[in-house]
Model the fold of this input.
Amino acid sequence: QVQLVESGGGLVQAGGSLRLSCLASERTINSYVMGWFRQAPGKEREFVATISAGFGMAYYGDSVKGRFTISRDNAKSTMYLQMNNLRPEDTAVYYCAADVPPYSSYSYSSRVKYDSWGQGTQVTVSS
Done:
């Protein structure tokens, strides 16, 4: 497992932008599958985006496609989530997660794939 710490959450108006960061305790994040999930009050934890190990292919949940961008800076051991055109329905606690080798065989959009989680950062979008 790896220690993960999120930052960058806050309060923003609808249409605004935020960038979340996820700092990993290890310097080998290039070998991890990493992802972002979110959980709104009373709802299940929802897949937001993932970035593959190695080449860094990105995949997104339908509700954020075209608005959010996931990226990774291996030298800084940090993953990012750039969130643009935010909507009130994006309000949630955002969690970063990592699947470290040996990789789980579960789908990248499944919570159980990931064995390391951060503590979460609150994002609130006002209308």
